[in-house]
Amino acid sequence: MRITLRQLRYLDALAAEGHFGRAADRAAVSQPALSAQIRELEEALGCQLVERAATGARLTPAGHQVVERGRRILAEVEDLETLARAAADPATGSLRLGIIPSIGPYLLPKLLPVLAEAFPALKVGVRETVTAGLVGELQEGSLDLVIASLPLGDPYLVEAPVFSDAFLLATPAAGPLSLGAFDRAADIPTEALLLLEDGHCLRDQTLASCGALDARRLTRAGVTSLATILQLVAAGQGITLLPELFLAATPLDGGRVRLRRFSEPEPHRTIGLAWRRSSPLAPLCERIAGLTAHLKPAADGLGA
């Protein structure tokens, strides 16, 4: 019995969802059909891939290995199909672009018009989610190109840094939190720091910039957007680090927020693009990286 691409896709959906019903919805197939295909895959490979329980499904160690390799196989198949479509001109057809939420709303309004002018026959579809999700979808071939904070650390991906995005200190313009002299990010008191919720790479980068912090003393806000963080700062609820890319695209709240640059070396993140090494769209991705590099946010008026 031979394994099929369908079986690999169904197992990948189950790995992503951890539940047969949700995996079936994701794969647009009935649950019995998905379950049957995965059992056939287990029989073909001669090992158990999934632990089945009333509450859901969990991959076995062998299942994790099969999913990892299966994603690379599926990505290669996607690349083969893309190669056929792009044989005449890689700048025609479609490009599936993934981008993280702390970059998308502030870079895309500049980038998409540039791409439309440079590649008028190219249709760009955009997917916005956190870094881990984008990397997984890029690996499996669901995306062609990702814009995120680098490094991603995957040997199967090409990473192209395009610009450095500095972090600025944002404090209330008045009140006790406006008085602190924080020349370095590490000087910020833990209890005053406002962060995005877990799962956002910007949270991890901010914590890294601030040095050793006692996570138990962090303010728990469950915030998922930089715009909300900015409003909390304006209301005097805390202070934070905000990327220059966001600030260049966002009007400040009526003078209620004060911005300040840190002393050198400034904390920052590296914005870049990533694509699969095997992708037939690699030349197009390289051209897009070059265009993106010119969109670095202007520093005018952003802090002293």
TrEMBL record:
Q: Which Gene3D superfamilies match?
A: Periplasmic binding protein-like II, Winged helix-like DNA-binding domain superfamily/Winged helix DNA-binding domain
Q: Does the keyword Transcription apply?
A: yes
Arranged from A to Z, the UniProt key words for this protein are:
Activator, DNA-binding, Transcription, Transcription regulation
List the GO cellular component terms. protein-DNA complex
Q: Report the coiled-coil segments.
A: none
Q: Which InterPro entries does the annotation name?
A: LysR_HTH_N, LysR_subst-bd, WH-like_DNA-bd_sf, WH_DNA-bd_sf
Domain annotation HTH lysR-type: ranges: 3-60
Q: Which PANTHER family match?
A: HYDROGEN PEROXIDE-INDUCIBLE GENES ACTIVATOR (PTHR30346:SF26), TRANSCRIPTIONAL DUAL REGULATOR HCAR-RELATED (PTHR30346)
Which named protein is this?
Answer: Hydrogen peroxide-inducible genes activator
Q: Which organism is it from?
A: uncultured Pleomorphomonas sp
